[in-house]
Design brief:
The protein is an alpha/beta fold and about 800 residues long. It has four domains: about 180 residues, no CATH class; about 130 residues, no CATH class; about 270 residues, no CATH class; about 140 residues, Nonspecific Lipid-transfer Protein, Chain A, CATH 3.30.1050. Strand 9 and strand 10 form a beta hairpin. This is 9-hexadecenoic acid cis-trans isomerase. InterPro entries: Fatty_acid_cis-trans_isomerase.
């Protein structure tokens, strides 16, 4: 018998042995505590059990568990951000699986199943005991209880940095996700891996609260219903969104498809409650019967759709939180945009994928100006949709954008003409979107098709522009929207953090390498590509074509910006942005991007026109440019501000040594002042961002730099620093001496609160508390899945 054959038999025997152990363990639990079945765990409101959960248990779960277990990237799909999520449990399948050939089944909380029993049918395993409800069974036959006990028995080793061969903190690590039947083997193989994983154990007092709660059967409480005042506002808005006329139904469909990922709230409420806008089979006044489709424009399967407000039942976490304010002013604005103009909706569009995935076709009966103004009125939320919307992370999707760039918008007044409306209608076929192929796509064939249609559109657009400016007129900064003098959504900054990103109001940091100027069609297509039409459960082809299509849209936005520069410098600037681009992209760049060759109407006076243009735009938009993130406005002394300025100058390979996001808490010299928070953002430079799988090969480490901002920016901290104001000058000097990994370790030894620090949880609590106090509407719990171990 060959050695290879012996190995196969050995592996087979091991598989049978361990599967047999799991079966035996399950049988043993059944013998001891009875067969498992979902339990009723929601305690009646106003009972002692419900109050104990809300006031004692839930805060611990949020601040110690939800910080790693929320959204699609929660380890083992274990979402602990709601009572329903805790009861649902875990699943061994990964949502983020970039190689799957067939789209996966969706597992969205509160959408794809409505009960724990339904989640069991979908392959989710309990983390709470579902057998006999006795203290012994609840603590011995529940994964969550066993994980907490394992951590208490085996706290973190006394190491500043945990050894890499024993701990894996990579996002794509091999997750064990043990069921209760597999728990004994897990405890034997990974005794250090109790929960919280790779972080200090929770305090004895907190552990007792959780263990007492688990021992008692884990009674939980439903989310408290909104106040009568809030319910009245919900009723008013649901009535507004569910009118019977074709115009009302089409407008509401448009609003829904743009706000379905937002957290809606009423800004005139003292304590806001957040809602999701959902499609329901039932009309207002009746319980919501949610229509669970992959995309917001998929066929609902009913004759009439109703748009309803479903209360958010999960803990608010920063990485998915997109607050959107509703009030009488907003309702009046929608009336002005969509109902005061004179136009007719003759018939409602269908939901065929070819039509519904293309907003230029589906909503062609609505005025372009109304659609565009609706999106840019809250442009940060619109752009945030593709930053936070259907994904929590996605390097394949986000390596299509630079690490930091500014975003501007075409003035809607320049596009509010019948000629523009007619142009978009004429080009609708060239503006088709990948989601028309739904979630299973063949990448190469479809990408070539979309490349050709984008080329046709750009040539038509350039011809349209040339005809528009044929009488000696030229583009100037008048092209750029000024926010109508009051709207601070007119200037945005997008910052990428490898596989996550942030969009902020204002022109943050020094002038960037690139910028976008977005017009209506571009903004609309970005939304339908990356938000409404993107499926995180889709197959490899769907995700790949989506990413490749975004190349075209990014370059179109960049081309709009370049059209304001002297025509003689546009090509050289573009070439600098796309060093080493592949042959197909180079041909596309040379043939279709920036073929608009009309001279700019701007008079440049230096040899650095891009810098001049940025300065002009900054000056023009100064009245609406948010300065929220300006570290120079921190409540610190001059010496500290000067030190912060020195930190902001870090660049090159020194900057490369720092993580994507470092959160800094500065304790002021004045004891009466609150701690000041800052974020040090690392910006990674690239030759180009057009390559799909060779990002490392495209890196330009010598051109890396940092952006220091006041406050919290981003959702995924990589490192925590704690420093007294008086020590900031010393920190600024020492950071300039960090050239190697050893230097970085020495620096962190002095200033970091590492994941192994005994004071980690008290620091974490203070950080989240300050964030919530400073920005009660915007703030959500931060996520610790990217905390470094260095």
């Amino acid at each position: 018998m060959s050695i290879k054959h012996c190995k196969r038999i050995f592996i087979l025997l091991l598989t049978v042995l361990f599967s047999g152990c799991a079966v035996y363990a399950g049988f043993n639990f059944d013998q001891q505590f009875g067969r498992a079945e979902p339990q009723q765990r929601i305690a009646p409101a106003n009972t002692l059990q419900a109050n104990n959960y809300l006031t004692e248990v839930k805060p611990i779960i949020e601040n110690r568990c939800v910080v790693c277990h929320a959204c699609y990237d929660a380890p083992c799909q274990l979402k602990l951000s709601s009572a329903e999520g805790i009861d649902r449990g875990s699943n061994k399948e990964k949502v983020y699986e970039g190689t799957r050939l067939i789209a996966a089944n969706t597992t969205r909380m509160f959408i794809d199943a409505q009960s724990t029993a339904q989640w069991r049918d979908k392959g989710f395993n309990a983390v709470l005991n579902e057998r006999e409800q006795s203290p012994e069974a609840n603590t011995q036959a529940g994964v969550m209880a066993r994980m907490l006990q394992l951590k208490q028995a085996h706290p973190l080793p006394e190491q500043t940095v945990l050894t890499a061969d024993e701990w894996d903190f990579s996002l794509d690590r091999n997750q064990q996700c043990p069921t209760i039947e597999e728990m004994a083997q897990y405890e034997h193989d990974y005794p250090q891996w109790g929960m919280p994983y790779g972080l200090p154990k929770i305090s004895d007092a907190d552990n007792k609260v959780l263990m007492d709660w688990l021992s008692a059967g884990s009674p939980m409480a439903a989310v408290a219903p909104p106040s009568l005042s809030t319910q009245a506002k919900v009723s008013k808005w649901e009535k507004f969104l569910n009118g019977d006329s074709f115009k009302q139904q089409l407008v509401s469909r448009y609003i829904y498809e743009h706000l379905f990922v937002a957290h809606l709230y009423f800004s005139d409420e003292e304590t806001p409650v957040f809602f999701n806008l959902v499609r329901s089979r039932t009309a207002p006044g009746k319980p919501i019967d949610i229509i669970a489709t992959r995309r917001p424009f998929d066929d609902p399967g009913v004759e009439r759709v109703y748009y309803r407000f479903q209360q958010v039942r999960e803990t608010i976490v920063d990485k998915t939180h997109m607050p959107y304010a509703l009030n009488p002013t907003k309702m009046a604005r929608i009336e002005t945009l969509f109902f005061k103009p004179s136009y007719t909706v003759a018939a409602l569009p269908g939901y065929e994928p070819e039509l519904a995935a293309n907003p230029m076709e589906a909503f062609r009966q609505l005025p372009v100006d109304s659609r565009y103004r609706f999106m840019i009125d809250n442009a940060q939320n619109t752009i945030m949709g593709f930053i936070k919307g259907p994904v929590c992370r996605g390097q394949l999707a986000l390596n299509v954008i630079n690490d930091r760039f500014w975003v501007f918008f075409v003035d809607p007044a320049m596009a509010d003409t019948p000629r523009v409306d007619a142009f978009y209608q004429d080009q609708a076929k060239n503006l088709r979107m990948p989601a028309e192929h739904e979630s299973n796509t063949l990448p190469l064939t479809h990408w070539m098709s979309y490349a050709k249609q984008q080329g046709r559109f750009l040539r038509a657009k350039n011809a349209f522009m040339a005809d528009t400016f044929k009488n000696g007129e030229h583009l100037t900064t008048d092209l750029v929207w000024d926010g109508d003098g009051y709207n601070d959504n007119a200037t945005l900054t997008v910052l990428r953090h490898f596989d996550s990103a942030t969009v902020t109001k204002g022109l943050v940091g020094k002038p960037p390498k690139t910028a976008w100027i977005l017009d209506y069609s571009l903004l609309e297509r970005i939304h339908y590509l990356l938000v409404a039409g993107f499926d995180v459960y889709g197959n490899f082809g769907h995700q790949l074509v989506t990413r490749m299509y975004m190349d075209f849209l990014r370059m179109e936005g960049e081309s709009n910006f370049l059209s304001l520069l002297p025509s003689s410098t546009r090509r050289s600037e573009l070439a600098d942005w796309y060093l080493g681009a592949d042959q197909h992209l180079t041909q596309f760049l040379q043939g279709d991007i920036n073929a608009f060759d009309q001279p700019t109407g701007i008079q440049f006076t230096t040899g650095h026109p891009k810098q001049e243009l940025f300065e002009m735009l900054e000056q023009k938009l100064k009245p609406v440019n948010s300065t929220r993130y300006d570290y120079r406005q921190a409540e610190l002394g001059n010496n500290a501000i000067n030190a912060l300025n020195n930190i902001d100058q870090l660049k090159g390979r020194q900057a490369t040594l720092f993580p994507e996001l470092s959160y800094i808490m500065v304790m002021p010299s004045n004891p009466a002042s609150a701690p000041q928070l800052f974020t040090l953002v690392r910006n990674s430079a690239h030759k180009n961002i057009s390559s799909l799988f060779s990002e490392e090969a495209n890196r330009l480490y010598d051109q890396d730099n940092v952006t220091l901002v006041k406050g919290i920016l981003g959702s995924y901290p990589g490192a925590f620093w704690l420093v007294d104001e008086g020590d900031l000058p010393a920190l600024a000097r020492e950071i300039k001496m960090v050239y190697t990994e050893a230097d970085y370790t020495k620096f962190m030894d002095r200033y970091a609160v590492r994941r192994t620090d005994p004071d980690f949880w008290s620091f974490s609590d203070k950080l989240n508390q300050l964030y919530q106090q400073n920005f009660p509407i915007e703030a959500g719990l931060l996520d610790y899945n990217r905390l470094e171990n260095r």
